[in-house]
């Protein structure tokens, strides 16, 4: 089923999403990859405040290429989500409600998704140039010294993704294999 949702995410919208749904996300999301996650985690462990609130927000695991003149961002494809798994349960417990990436998630992340009523989306790898057309604004929010891995605030319009793990724990990567074998 196709669904149009807004970011930051609302509890009611998350609860209606089902593994396998196609979604189009409009609103404000943030980027963060490996180095930014490590730095955020260290900040949390030091008892300091993060540069953005996790509450109801979506993090896109993406490091863009440089923007062409007149464009808000360069190619904006997803990176492998499992590289952030070490840090993700902590961020989910702090209120993060959505993640966009590619690939499988650990058991600990899946449990944290269910525990916190969150959702994991997959974006199509290799389609970064097309996905960038859904980004209407991009600004570096924190960790500028990390270059492409800096945290960015993005404004997106109809960014396409697929619900992989929904708030009830249904996992498309598991159910699709079972359905295929039938």
From TrEMBL:
<dbReference type="InterPro" id="IPR036660">
    <property type="entry name" value="Fe-S_hydroAse_TtdB_cat_sf"/>
</dbReference>
<protein>
    <submittedName>
        <fullName>Fe-S-containing hydro-lyase</fullName>
    </submittedName>
</protein>
<dbReference type="GO" id="GO:0016836">
    <property type="term" value="F:hydro-lyase activity"/>
</dbReference>
<keyword id="KW-0456">Lyase</keyword>
<comment type="similarity">
    <text>Belongs to the class-I fumarase family.</text>
</comment>
<dbReference type="Pfam" id="PF05683">
    <property type="entry name" value="Fumerase_C"/>
</dbReference>
<feature type="domain" description="Fe-S hydro-lyase tartrate dehydratase beta-type catalytic">
    <location>
        <begin position="8"/>
        <end position="175"/>
    </location>
</feature>
<dbReference type="InterPro" id="IPR004647">
    <property type="entry name" value="Fe-S_hydro-lyase_TtdB-typ_cat"/>
</dbReference>
